[in-house]
Amino acid sequence: MRPIQFFADSPKVPFMKYKNAGLAFAGLLMLITLVSLVIQGLNFGIDFRGGTLIEVRSTQGPADIPAMRNKVNGLGLGEVSMQEFGAPTDVLIRVQQQDGGEQAQQVAVEAVRGALGEGVEYRRVEFVGPKVGEELITYGTLAVVLALLAIMLYVWFRFEWQFGVCALLTLLHDVIAMIGLYSVLQLEFSLSTVAAILTIAGYSINDTVVVYDRIRENLRKYKKMDLRELCELSLNETLSRTVLTSGTTLLAIIALFAFGGPVIREFTGALIFGIVIGTFSSIFISAPLLLNLNLRRPPDKPVKDETAVGAQV
């Protein structure tokens, strides 16, 4: 039984012809990210900046989150986010940190109570201080860095050192591009964003390893083929798998983006961008970088001379 193929015949897309353009575009993305981070930075959410968490339960059936959001947004408390928390009757409300210390936070909580009115049971009220936010930033950054290093070491062990270094550079491109998206558009950067970045890193390295595995196979199969042509052949041979995987994943996330509601729209939008960038980097960055790092063919294993061995016996 033949595997599912997106293309009827093996495509012959001249990827290596556009490798410099691809690397230039990647460099442009990095430059835009750097400039945006310097000028306007990241729009950290309540998870990192601190604020007040209020968990409520509707006593009149499933919570009407849009109506609750409209009531609270008119209080002038700054950034306020709401999401379903566990059951349809439970809602988690995040209110940004107010100026004026603990007393100001209490005033904000009372304002929220007054706006929501009757029919709401308050189950939990917690204050997240800026120190906790700083720790979350530190641990979130550490999680991303350790994940990238672990991936590089795995690819290095599984293939050769050039593959490990190129995989790390490819993943750094994807992570920085994701951060740049949040900086340029000033989307809320929260713990969910860190989860999205790690998700895209895992998705991208999966596609990159498939390409690298085919390159390694072809290095052994085609002993005299030019390395540039060999990388191009490997990319074309895995292109059907790349298109099918990215396409089916995008269909699911686009559906979530369109019908999942405003609470997860930023998150799913970032995932869509990340999948596109991850697919781009697997094709136009991972393989061209191997050529720039002087990828070499594995040495041929010496073949035993069976005649000589028989003569010795």
UniProtKB/TrEMBL annotation:
Recorded superkingdom: Bacteria
TM annotation in the entry: 21-42, 136-156, 163-185, 191-215, 243-264, 270-291
One GO term of the biological process aspect: protein transport by the Sec complex
A GO molecular-function annotation: protein-transporting ATPase activity
Compartments in which it is found: Cell membrane
Membrane topology, as annotated: Multi-pass membrane protein
Subunit structure, interactors included: Forms a complex with SecD. Part of the essential Sec protein translocation apparatus which comprises SecA, SecYEG and auxiliary proteins SecDF-YajC and YidC.
HAMAP family, alphabetized: SecF_B
Protein name: Protein-export membrane protein SecF
Species, as recorded: Oceanibaculum pacificum
